[in-house]
């Protein structure tokens, strides 16, 4: 009989190797002895076997399942004499049992063993091979049939191997682990070839569930159902749908010969629901769905036919400050959504909830107009201003419109959550933007200044900044004024510096545009006029006095 391109004629004499592994000599024999003495302290018994000295046997060999001794002093016992050590016979009760079990096994299977597979423990390794024990039966597995590396530490390992020879004359049973491997590989190949060639649908048993899929046994071959191949919904957690031992219907979809990986699919057995979606749905359609899962970035919705759509967090509401979808939706809730994208190639479906809701900006336009004074809530602060929500719509309150004080910023006077009264300065309907103003609701420093000052009034201030076109001057109560270059004479601009006190006349007060212009030139003119008037008054007075004196 030959197998795996091997033959018994080309191999070693397995029976001889088995005999060598047991180091049995011609003197090995089974005899009936008598228990002479039980030495419990040393865990041994002395057994007389008809020789000059008694043999020694471990008490562990003659204990039953409960740990009780099967024999006592004076009892007859069958032992195997395997040789001598220092003239004392080497005996074993266990070997007798093993031989009896081995003989029973040989008698039961000697005529039909070609497909017989045993599972046992490797108890010994020698130059010729390995001794395997299973159910008290000893087997021998030659090194050439073991499929182990020489460096492998296999003693004590549990293995499966196929019986390849039984020799009743030698009481030997030969195993081959390699033969079993080849048979299993051949069987698996036949199963895989059949699955791949015939495109068949089969039932399998789930052996193991992992985070990335399930291993399923189909007729003795393990295949992987990746989590992408469980449902048309997309990647799913298999542990939420199945448990180990469940029977599932699968179909083979690929086989990697190099890696020996069989890929299976559950969804390939089922009708493709996307065919129905592509024929029944269009972008813009409104459908009723059920919330199936909520994540921080959005919501998955079930269409009811093993297809899931995705509702991004930005498509839940018109409110741009959504922190968590759980604040708006809950698992199991039915909602109407609009289909906004169908990708038949990637099997992706995107939907929107907010597109079925009234647009807050449209509602705002119906209710408010430019110039209206309203109260809103500060939602966020930035370096350039504050966003204020008014009836679900946000408007921008820019820093320059916070206060009449140009150095004041939104962060200085407001915080998130504050209610603030503002004026709707501008509504950009095309870009859906709203500009707000707060300072127009406050008293203008220039308005206040204008109540106590008139054009041509002389004022004193401090130079705040010098520009290419003129000089900015800080007046009382935080009021700024501008002296243009042409109004600086007779002063020399290059001789001026910030912080310097300066005197000028008011040339113009524009309360509508919140601007004040000063003029040094005008002040100089006014002073010259006042001096001239004073001189004229003096001269007129002197001439009158001369005339009076003459008439006297």
Would you mind describing this structure in some detail?
This protein is α+β, with helices and mostly antiparallel strands and 552 residues long. It has six domains: 26-97, Nucleic acid-binding proteins (OB fold (Dihydrolipoamide Acetyltransferase, E2P), Beta Barrel); 110-177, OB fold (Dihydrolipoamide Acetyltransferase, E2P), CATH 2.40.50; 182-269, Beta Barrel (OB fold (Dihydrolipoamide Acetyltransferase, E2P)), CATH 2.40.50.140; 273-356, Nucleic acid-binding proteins (OB fold (Dihydrolipoamide Acetyltransferase, E2P), Beta Barrel), CATH 2.40.50.140; 368-437, Nucleic acid-binding proteins (OB fold (Dihydrolipoamide Acetyltransferase, E2P), Beta Barrel); 445-537, Beta Barrel (OB fold (Dihydrolipoamide Acetyltransferase, E2P)). Helix content is 19%, strand content 39%. The protein is built from eight helices and 32 strands. It has helices at 14-22, 94-109, 177-198, 273-280, 360-367, 410-413, 445-450, 520-551, and strands at 2-3, 6-7, 29-39, 44-48, 55-58, 76-85, 88-92, 117-125, 129-134, 137-142, 158-167, 172-176, 201-210, 213-218, 221-226, 247-256, 261-265, 286-295, 298-302, 308-312, 334-343, 348-352, 373-381, 385-390, 393-398, 419-428, 433-437, 458-466, 470-474, 480-484, 501-510, 515-519. It has a five-stranded antiparallel beta sheet with strand order 5-4-3-6-7. Strands 10-9-8-11-12 form a five-stranded antiparallel beta sheet. Strands 13-14-15-17-16 form a five-stranded mixed β-barrel. The longest helix is centred in the last third of the chain and has 32 residues, at 520-551. It is elongated. The N and C termini lie far apart (174 Å).
């Amino acid at each position: 009989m030959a197998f795996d391109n091997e033959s018994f004629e080309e191999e070693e004499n397995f029976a001889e190797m088995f005999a060598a592994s047991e180091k049995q000599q011609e003197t090995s024999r089974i005899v009936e002895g008598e228990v002479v003495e039980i030495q419990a302290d040393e865990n041994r018994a002395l057994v007389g076997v008809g020789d000059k000295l008694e043999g020694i046997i471990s008490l562990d060999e003659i204990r039953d399942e409960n740990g009780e001794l099967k024999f006592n002093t004076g009892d007859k016992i069958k032992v195997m004499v395997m040789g001598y050590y220092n003239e004392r016979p080497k005996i074993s009760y266990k070997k007798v049992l093993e031989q009896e079990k081995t003989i029973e096994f040989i008698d039961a299977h000697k005529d039909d063993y070609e497909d017989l597979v045993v599972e046992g423990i490797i108890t010994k390794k020698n130059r010729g091979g390995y001794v395997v024990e299973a159910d008290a039966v000893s087997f021998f597995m030659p090194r050439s049939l073991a499929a182990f590396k020489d460096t492998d530490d296999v003693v004590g390992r549990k293995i499966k191997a196929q019986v390849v020879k039984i020799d009743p004359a030698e009481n030997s049973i030969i195993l081959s682990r390699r033969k079993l491997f080849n048979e299993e590989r051949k069987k698996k190949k036949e199963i895989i070839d059949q699955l791949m060639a015939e495109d068949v649908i089969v039932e399998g048993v789930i052996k193991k569930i992992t985070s990335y899929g399930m291993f399923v046994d189909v007729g003795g071959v393990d295949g992987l159902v990746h989590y992408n191949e469980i449902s048309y919904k997309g990647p799913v957690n298999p542990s939420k749908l199945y448990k180990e031992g469940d029977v599932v219907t699968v179909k083979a979809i690929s086989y990697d010969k190099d890696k020996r990986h069989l890929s299976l699919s559950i969804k390939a057995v089922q009708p493709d629901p996307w065919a129905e979606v592509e024929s029944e749905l269009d972008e813009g359609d409104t459908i009723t769905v059920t919330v199936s899962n909520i994540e921080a970035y959005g919501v998955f919705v079930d269409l009811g036919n093993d297809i899931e759509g995705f509702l991004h967090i930005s498509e839940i509401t018109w409110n741009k400050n959504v922190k968590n979808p759980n604040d708006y939706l809950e698992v199991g809730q039915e909602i109407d959504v609009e289909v906004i994208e169908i990708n038949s190639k990637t099997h992706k479906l995107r939907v929107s909830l907010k597109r079925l809701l009234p647009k807050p900006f449209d509602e705002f336009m119906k209710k408010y107009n430019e110039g209206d004074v309203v109260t809103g809530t500060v939602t966020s602060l930035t370096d350039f201003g504050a966003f204020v929500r008014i009836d679900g719509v946000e408007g921008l309150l820019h820093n320059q419109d916070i206060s009449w004080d140009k150095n004041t910023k939104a962060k200085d006077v407001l915080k998130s959550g504050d209610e603030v009264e503002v004026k709707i300065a501008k509504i950009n309907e095309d870009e859906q933007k709203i500009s707000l103003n707060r300072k127009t609701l406050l008293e203008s420093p220039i308005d206040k200044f204008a109540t106590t000052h008139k054009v041509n009034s002389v004022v004193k201030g401090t130079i705040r900044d010098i520009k290419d076109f003129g000089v900015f001057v800080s007046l009382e109560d935080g009021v700024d004024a501008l002296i243009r270059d042409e109004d600086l004479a007779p002063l020399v601009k290059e001789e001026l510096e910030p912080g310097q006190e300066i005197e000028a006349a008011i040339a113009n007060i524009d309360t509508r545009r919140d601007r004040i212009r000063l003029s040094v030139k005008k002040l100089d003119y006014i002073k010259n006029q006042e001096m001239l008037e004073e001189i004229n008054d003096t001269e007129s007075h002197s001439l009158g006095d001369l005339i009076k004196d003459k008439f006297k």
